[in-house]
Amino acid sequence: MKRFVAHYVEMVLAMLVGMGVLGGIWMMIWPGIHDRPVLHTLEMAADMTIGMAVWMVLRGHPRRMIVEMSVAMVAPFLLLLIPLAAGVITAGTLMLAGHVLMLFTMLAAMLLRRQDYMHHHGKPVWKRRRRQPVPAA
User: Fold this and answer.
1) Is the Cα torsion angle 95, 30, 17, 106 positive or negative in sign?
2) Cα dist from 34 to 4, 88, 130, 132, whole Å
3) Which one, of 64, 62, 49, lies nearest residue 14 by Cα?
4) Are 119 and 4 in contact (CB under 8 A)?
5) Distance of alpha carbon 23 from alpha carbon 135, whole angstroms
6) pLDDT of residue 121
7) pLDDT tens, per residue, the chain with 137 residues
8) More exposed terminus of the chain, fewer Cβ within 10 Å: N or C?
9) Element containing residue 14 per DSSP (H, E)
10) How far is it, in rounded angstroms, from Cα 64 to Cα 70?
């Protein structure tokens, strides 16, 4: 169970790093993005998903798990676009509810494959042996 919880925490931290690093890049490329709340929210969701996906790749997770987790992270924001378009929620609600729901959908994805998340996967990138070059004859 400790491995499961640690995995969740690692992914949340990777999301924060992704949001911070990629968000900073976005602010340099498009300084006015914060003035467009819906676009900014979707950009943040993408940044967090990319950060988490990169971390999972580095940790040696299979593509299937990375794709499932990415879908779980983006789905709340996409679904909330419907009530936003209908005028039922505001852009601020989209931002807040999307982030809160993302944490729950991530947990749900992990619980669906709890055995996969309770152990280590392939070797992390930093522990993989590099192939030694074949000496020229």
Assistant:
1) positive
2) 35, 22, 43, 48
3) 49
4) no
5) 45
6) 63
7) 898 999 999 999 999 999 999 999 999 999 999 899 999 999 999 999 999 999 999 988 899 999 999 999 999 999 999 999 999 999 999 999 999 999 999 999 999 989 888 876 666 665 656 666 666 66
8) C
9) helix 2-29
10) 10
CA distance 86 to 81: 9
Contact status, residue 84 vs residue 91, Cβ threshold 8 Å: yes
Q: Is 60 left (phi over 0), alpha (psi -120 to 50) or beta?
A: left
Helix ranges (DSSP H) in 30-113? 37-58, 63-85, 91-112
Which amino acid is it at 44? Answer: M
Give whole-number Cα distances, 109 to 23, 69, 91, 99, 133, in Å.
25, 6, 26, 15, 41
What Cα–Cα distance (Å) separates residue 39 from each residue in 63, 75, 91, 92, 94? 27, 15, 9, 12, 11
Asked whether the beta carbons of 45 and 98 are under 8 A apart, the reply is yes
Pairwise CA distance, residues 131 & 74, whole Å:
37
The two three-digit tokens of residue 98, written as one number: 């999307």
